Model the fold of this input.
Amino acid sequence: MRTAAVVGTGLIGTSVALALTRRGVRVHLLDADESAARTAESLGAGVCRMPDGTVDLAVLAVPPGRVGRVLADKQACGLARSYTDVSSVQAGPQAEVVACGADPARFIGGHPMAGRERSGPLAACATLFEDRPWVLTPCPATNRETLNRALELVALCGATPVLMEAPAHDRAVAVVSHAPHVVAALMAARLIGIEDDASRLAGQGLRDVVRIAGGDPRLWTDILAANAGAVADVLAELADDLSTTVVALRALTSADPADRALGDRLVSGLLARGVEGRAGLPGKHSDVLPVCVPVRVLIGDQPGELARLLAATSELGVNIEDMSIDHSPGSPSGLVELAVTATSATHLAQRLRADGWNVQRVPAVLGDRSTAPVPAPDPETAATAA
Amino acid sequence: MRTAAVVGTGLIGTSVALALTRRGVRVHLLDADESAARTAESLGAGVCRMPDGTVDLAVLAVPPGRVGRVLADKQACGLARSYTDVSSVQAGPQAEVVACGADPARFIGGHPMAGRERSGPLAACATLFEDRPWVLTPCPATNRETLNRALELVALCGATPVLMEAPAHDRAVAVVSHAPHVVAALMAARLIGIEDDASRLAGQGLRDVVRIAGGDPRLWTDILAANAGAVADVLAELADDLSTTVVALRALTSADPADRALGDRLVSGLLARGVEGRAGLPGKHSDVLPVCVPVRVLIGDQPGELARLLAATSELGVNIEDMSIDHSPGSPSGLVELAVTATSATHLAQRLRADGWNVQRVPAVLGDRSTAPVPAPDPETAATAA
Done:
């Protein structure tokens, strides 16, 4: 790609232009609001005038409802060989492309999954899309040159392409973006009119749940309207679960033990499904829990033995994730089980032994080849440590 | 307070004991599980034996369902002059106190609003309660000595006391803690079975909404069961709003413009209530948006003037929150409006003037006495910058 046009120099358009310019592409900046295009130009995003010939790719960074019309106009004046958009919904604009009489062969829908709380060209940055997913939704008519130009655009912006059908994209963003916004807003609305003392009790959990509810209602109504059917489907399922939850909670207040048992089963089942759903999200590295291994130490029953063991462990720089003490009845000694990460278990056991502690053999875990593959880590301990 | 007893040396009990010990209180650690009490002792939280006489205050850090029974037992053996608990619900345990025949005059309910994802004494820390709210729920029978002992406990732990009636506390935690947990879980449950490509599109917004849904379902079912009526009331309101939202979203897909207008009004109204509810939460300092003031600069219409202005502003270390350019028709110059924080506006204007820029007078804002109190900041600009 040597030349490109960005139509619409808001946050996304200007960020695309900055990324392309930085990679040596000559970018033409076009916007109905000339001052936005001039701002983008002054940031070094490209040049603020029409190209002399036809550019390789035009990125239509305009509102979803205008994609079809703008595409038809720009194709009519031969702006580019291929076109893509950056709409947060895809099926609607694709239908508009056909309805406006534009050529669908030279168009591919696109949605870079990146944004900022601020909008406009001044909020733009060349690295906005780095390591983010960028959905491309080719329609059956889309030609290979257009698909390849879009893939090159995604690569130049440092993003990861994800090819999807437009309706599947729209269902996916309904679940991962649009429905969560509604849920956050409806939860936040419960805070209207609560007493000051009550809101003083709010902790980080509530703040996280309602954080995105601060978004602009006008902007978000437009986003939801463009994907209303798919969002309604997700929320209708959620409404069914919510009704069940309310009934189950009322049953928990019943005098009848059978009602309470049913309520308990329903509530714990719904919460368990929440754990399962959350666990399916691709993990960040910081979310990954370490595998724990028990290091078992036999200690005398004198006062201070346990404190001395903990101090020794601490001096070795090993974090204890969990601990239990098993006192044998009638014996003056006890078995202390220190749950530590698999990577530090062998080291800890060796050093404690060297210091004279009575340490039992450390069980091996997958990937730890320093000891023979004897018993697997105690699932009880691992569960507690998690 | 010179002496205290902590009954139940889990995360909360051991953290209380550590905080009190650090402030010079002699703490006796009691737990049905002797190994937990010994662990707490080895961490320096106190001594693991019954006091010889009666201590000033006993903190019952036991499950809510056991508070009444444990209180009656400990009062019968004269453990302490005053008692408090650390239950996450308050009305139920208070009723149990009376039902078990304990003396309510020497008991005050308490709920320190702090916790960690890990449990048990090894997760304890002396600073767990610092700057956190600690609710106290005296009942009419609670005597003054007991109230004052509890206030001293809260102060020694570095927390802020909040006096509430038990039912008001339970309604408050239903809104700020229990209902958000259910909402997060039900949203997370929608992610079960979605395609890998869809979950790759998940961003920070979704992660924040569902973060707390990872909590242990068994533990959370017990918490919800203890406060089921209040949580059901909050969720029933939310269910009403959710049904309205689904109907409104379906209306947005209608062919009838009147239906769409109604849907639009309903959805934007619900989202606006979310913004309002979230705004009522006591702000963290990082959440407070700066007050913006426009600095207006008249520039020539030559290429590069705007870029030169932005570079000059950047060199002065001033962040531009928003910008607009007003080109006067038929004039070779334009008026650039840079929205910057009130604290940097006067400095920026002075420095730009010194460098030869044509800067208009900066409007004064509340608390800025460096210029005469002329026009208030443009509400349009302030809104855009926010």
Summary: The first helix of chain B runs from residue 11 to 22. Residues 51 and 72 of chain B are 18 Å apart (CA to CA). Chain B touches chain A through 113 residues (CB under 8 Å). The two ends of chain B are 49 Å apart (CA to CA).
